[in-house]
Amino acid sequence: MFGVIDLPTYLAGLVLIVLLPGPNSLYVLSVAARRGVRAGYTAAAGVWCGDTVLMTLSAAGVASLLQANAVLFGIVKYAGAGYLTWLAIGMMRAAWAMWRTRREKAVEETADTGTHERPFRRAFVVSLLNPKAILFFVAFFVQFVDPGYAYPALSFVVLGAFAQAASFLYLTALIFSGTRLASAFRRRKRLSAGATSAAGALFLGFAVKLSLASS
Predict the structure, then answer these.
(1) HSE-up of 44 (CA within 13 Å, CB side)?
(2) pTM, whole model, 2 decimals?
(3) Would you say 24 and 126 are in contact if contact means Cβ atoms under 8 Å apart?
(4) Where are the transmembrane segments (predicted)?
(5) What is the DSSP string of the chain?
(6) Rounded-to-integer distance, Cα 57 and Cα 63, Å
(7) pLDDT by residue, tens only, the chain of 215 residues
(8) Cβ atoms 95, 197 nearer than 8 A
(9) How far is CA 175 from its chain centroid?
(10) Fewer Cβ atoms within 10 Å of its own Cβ: the N or the C terminal residue of the chain?
(11) Which phi and psi (to 5°) does residue 145 adopt?
């Protein structure tokens, strides 16, 4: 079908990959828990747009360029690690403020991170600043593209469409789970602070992992 081979194997692998926790899904869950369904979908839209850009770049061969050019790969890699570190520090500062105060208004303002947060832009940038994702899309997608097919770009489009559909279902589940978690967090401030701390620590771990990645 459109130059795609062994579709059942691809779908099985795709489900496993989508279910692996990462900075994108974690950020969407965090936004949904703090700001509700609408903001959660706004962040998810940033993820989908970022992934679309990465898939397009992968199909166009940018992944091969990053893999061959160590300097370019390093620039993108450390930029991504720096951004994830900045997000982690912000989450940990918010969690520390929650631990230090019991006043309802202060906690809510801190947990919400203010009206200046732009979930779409943040999620979009987190998605883009991940050179390993570009390399992954090529390494994974190319295994299921018929080398003899006359229009390989169309094959990438089909594979990407399945990937986005799986991402939509998964992030939707996270968004609605996040809104349920939010009510528990509002009742238990220590739980909210602990969860925010854990999210910040995970983002810091993602930053370290990305900074140590090799092309």
Answers:
(1) 22
(2) 0.67
(3) yes
(4) 12-33, 45-66, 78-96, 123-145, 151-179, 191-212
(5) -TTB--HHHHHHHHHHHHHS--HHHHHHHHHHHHH-HHHHHHHHHHHHHHHHHHHHHHHHTHHHHHHH-HHHHHHHHHHHHHHHHHHHHHHHHHHHHHHH---HHHHHHHHHT-TT--HHHHHHHHHHS-HHHHHHHHHHHGGGB-TT-S-HHHHHHHHHHHHHHHHHHHHHHHHHHHHHHHHHHHH-HHHHHHHHHHHHHHHHHHHHHHHT---
(6) 7
(7) 788 888 888 888 788 777 766 778 888 888 888 788 898 999 999 999 998 988 888 777 766 666 677 777 677 667 767 766 876 787 677 667 666 664 444 444 444 444 566 889 988 988 887 666 766 676 677 778 776 777 777 888 888 889 899 999 999 998 988 777 666 555 556 656 666 677 677 667 767 766 776 65
(8) yes
(9) 13
(10) N
(11) -110, 125
Q: What is the identity of the amino acid at 177?
A: S
The length of the chain is 215
At residue 109, what is the residue type? E
Looking up tokens 């166009």 gives 60
Q: In angstroms, rounded to a whole number, what is the distance separating the alpha carbons of residues 199 and 95? A: 10
